């Protein structure tokens, strides 16, 4: 039986949900859901054979809320009390939910928030508990705020070891637990903080990491897009090596790994002004873990002066992998051949901040 495809597009003014078959040539979109709310995080949770959509929306008046749908976006239900909230003894409040990702165990969902905190759910995203040791980490006072705010924008549970989770925050860097959250240590060796003075550019913490990803078949390998720098780690984030040679710019926000090949990775470089270099929207792909890069542009336009932010690029899990890119001009481009060719999935939406897709 042919499989279907669902894509979630979160914007600064609501969420759109697209549905297609496995060919992904024709799409039906519904939306806006949560109109006038910022949707910074989405998740198509297919763990355990179920399909649940989760969306982290933020209202100017009501604050953040995690919504859930078990019918592919036809109807939505609020989570109790907004779901992601600090305990009463913490003098802070969640402003945005920046990240929603599934865990290695049935029912586990992770959330990363602004201000910088990580939460864990064991009931498919209906309730969340603060990772207290990370919130109480002695480094927290030194974590700064990137241009978009201080937030844990990356949460990467180990695919087979529930006690191991890797996270990243702007600006603070990469942190990791191997004991189920009882302790967290920085994992930033080799990542350059180019904005610091000469001689101080490789600190223990304080890097402006933009995004980190890894492949479940090779969990010790990570790829990282930094504020100036693209990196790979082959030792579970203990050390990092630059793989930026061959790219038109080492600045960008997203980094995405192919769903079936841990050696294939995608980035979207940005030049001066945080535009695509020369206004040419281009994805760059490496098929040898960053040793070399190729420009992918067939079907992508020129004259694009809009950025692609950290969570606005993703893949699906079809045998012929789909790649999706959303820009701040409200356009989402889709490739159904791993990036070789592209077409416009939707245009003229509000500012796109997150795209998530899955085979269902």
TrEMBL record:
It comes from the Bacteria. Signal peptide: none annotated. Gene3D superfamilies: YVTN repeat-like/Quinoprotein amine dehydrogenase (2.130.10.10). InterPro entries: WD40/YVTN_repeat-like_dom_sf, Xyloglucanase_GH74. PANTHER family: EXO-ALPHA-SIALIDASE (PTHR43739:SF5), XYLOGLUCANASE (EUROFUNG) (PTHR43739). This is Exo-alpha-sialidase. It comes from Nocardioides abyssi.
